[in-house]
Amino acid sequence: MQQLNGSQILCESLLREGVDTIFGMPGGAVIPLYNVLLDYPFKHVLCRHEQGAAHMADGYARATGKVGVCIGTSGPGATNMVTGIATAMMDSVPMVVITGQVPTYMIGKDAFQETDTTGITMPITKHNYLVMDVKDLARVVREAFHIARTGRPGPVLIDLPKDVTTNETTFEYPSKLSLPGFKPKTQGHIRQIRQAARLIDEARKPLVMAGHGIILSEAYDELREFAEKIQIPVITTLLGISAFPETHPLYLGWPGMHGMYYCNMAISHADLIVAVGMRMDDRVTGRLNAFAPHAQIVHIDIDPAELGKNVRTAVPIVGDAKHVLKLLTQEVRDNRHDGWWEQLNQWRVEHPSLALPDRPEKMSSPWIVRQLYHATKGNAVLVTDVGQAQMWAAQHYFFSKPNTHITSGGLGPMGYALPASIGVQYGRPNDEVWCVTGDGGFQMTLEELAVIREENLPIKIALFNNSYLGMVRQWQQLFFNERYSAVKMWNPNYVKLGEAYEIPTVRCTQLDEVAPALEWARQIDGPAMIEFMVDPYENVFPMVPPGASLQETIEGVEDVAPQTAKIAAAAGGSSGGV
Amino acid sequence: MKHTLVALVENQPGVLMRVANLFARRGFNIESFTVGHTETTKLSRMTVVVDGAQTQVEQVIKQLYKLIDVLKVSDVTEDRTIDRELALIKVTASNSASRAEVVQFVNIFRGKIVDVAPDSLIVEVTGTEEKVDSLLDVLRPFGIKEMVRTGTVAMTRGGSVSARLAEDRLEAAG
Ligand SMILES: Cc1ncc(C[n+]2csc(CCOP(=O)(O)OP(=O)(O)O)c2C)c(N)n1
Ligand SMILES: [Mg+2]
Fold it and tell me: Are A29 and A101 in contact (CB under 8 A)?
């Protein structure tokens, strides 16, 4: 039988897993691997920083549902990817991360560019491997892909010592897997489903809270059919945005810290919540002990550990959203909830959280997002960064097509959007991809502009320049007496920066320039960037102050009571970070 | 409340670290942690004693199941179990009177003297945590120079964790 070296075995295995695109950067420990890559038909995208490669693989995976693949060298290559791996872990994104390692005989000797990569990434991967023998490699790759995409998806890391990539053995891709400790349950238990159906039938103020799990299991139709059968209002979480058409009459909006007022009220008054494919994150629940005080909760998730983790559940159902929703739809009776809808509509009229003036006085960020929505007719894919611009994009763009809102919800690393949008564009070459970012986050990974130029990717960048770390400034304004600490930023000349990267860039300083600039960017066959000089003191509302409950949603600066400010300033940990 | 958890894990490199990390990350204080071989090669068995509320412990068990190398986790706290730990205790005993007294106590606890030095004895004792504690209490006045305890290992009476694992596998196979 033919002998292959470890690098060839890896490539052969990747081919068999259907990999077509790889994001990465070479270095000493992976030179043999890169040498072999030349002989394989993969599209390799050279990142300019390995955090970028990890976010690219993440964006690619979110956009396609396939496993994203990235490569970095040992030591700094691996450590640079840590943020990207943690991002994928928090948001259940299927990824296989390949890192070089010093040769097996040098491990533990503090060799040049040696780091304990499996040790560092243990808590931020679904699983990881250090391959010490080339004979194990094919099996490990097979297992890694299976683990990454099966059950609740997540990143799996394979650490490859250099000698393992050059040692030879016979190659046979294992047809069978032996993972006795990994058997995710996908079929919901019918008794639990029936019990849930009875609660749903009896509920008078029911509500769906749909999360990222709908997108991951592609349960779009199942969710819609379920909702339509019983005329139940649908709320999505931030990561669930675009799991349900926002233009659908049953769609209410999204809840939580910057969610719509009426969504937070709906949760607070509901008597039954069907939570599906979501994990009751603290940004969604607000103060836990006041979350959904009147509701019984049916919680459906493929990860049993999410059921009952943060919120008590009446009926926990372990299973795949698609499967469970289909059965649940069969089990529930046709229904209407006219009285409940009346109440919801009243809140919507009295508290129109997304209302915007036709023409604001200043360069208003939410208004610009709305112009982007009109210009693209809701058909673009928005990849958003972290901060105020992220929240405005999620609020004021109405996503009607499945899986068109891509953002980092769990980890929230500034700098996510630009590289992620590269991965998204590779995954969906025919879609119009917009990278929506603040000026702070943009500076964290703007080196990847080189990739956009080099590959001539038609990504459009909407850069919201407020010269502030705006979200932090907002917290300091509202809860720290306007004591602005380390939030004002000097900015480079972004038009010149765009020029330096040979990316057509315009600056937009007035309302009248917005629509033409958007049209200009859309017409360009290739990348383009618009720098919006926006009002630096605009705030994101509604807002649930940290430490407050959803009932205490505020709608403007004037709603901040001194007491709220005090609690918010002190609220630490999970609900306190920006 | 104290819980005794028994986990069957695949004998993979790093599995100890994965399990220990998980307890630390989820905010548990581990009182004792023992690992050893089982009747099946490739499988190790961990006995972990932790302090925590019931819901917390249930959560940590679910999190443990998410580790690929973990096959089975049981909270055996409420089960009928045999719990044992072993301790080696070096007791000061520099005159014959105190030696005789120490030997007497050790006999009552069915321990053994496993080493004799001019001014000390090493006592070996096996039993439940409470039994070891009690022996320590009576030996303390003599002066304890050194002591090491293994931490508890536990086994359910009758049916076995491994048997339950086999049943689960059959069930999973349909
Ligand atoms: C890597 C990283 N560092 C710090 C933060 C904390 N943080 C969250 S939002 C934010 C401000 C973001 O500023 P910018 O990108 O300009 O967006 P804006 O809020 O102004 O729209 C900061 C510093 C973070 N989320 N990620
Ligand atoms: Mg900013």
Answer: yes
Report the C-alpha gap between A228 and B50 in whole angstroms.
47
Same-domain check for residues B14 and B71 = yes
Q: What is the pLDDT of residues A354-398, one digit of tens each?
A: 999 999 999 999 999 999 999 999 999 999 999 999 999 999 999
User: Where would I find the beta strands (DSSP E) of A20-126?
Assistant: 21-24, 43-46, 68-72, 95-101
B112 and B128 both lie in a single domain: yes
The interface predicted TM-score of the complex, written ipTM, equals 0.92
Q: Which of A194, A196, A192, A129 is nearest to A161 (CA)?
A: A129
Does A113 participate in catalysis according to the annotation?
yes
Residues B42 and B54 in one domain: yes
* CA atoms within 13 Å, Cβ hemisphere of A86: 16
pLDDT per residue as tens digits for the range A323-355? 999 999 999 999 999 999 999 999 999 999 999
pLDDT confidence band for B165 (50 / 70 / 90): low
Q: Do A165 and B154 form a contact (C-beta atoms < 8 A)?
A: no
Q: What pTM was computed for the model? A: 0.96
Do B103 and B51 lie in a common domain? no
Q: Which of A113, A140, A171 is the last residue of a domain?
A: A171
- Among chain B residues, the shortest Cα distance to A118 is held by B14
Atom of ligand 1 lying closest to residue A443 CA: 15
Ligand 1: residues with CB < 6 A are A 385-389, 412-414, 438-441, 464, 466, 468-472, 578
Q: Is residue A183 part of a domain?
A: no
Q: With b meaning 16 or more CB within 10 Å and e meaning fewer, what string describes A363-384? A: bbbbbbbbbbbebbebebbbbb
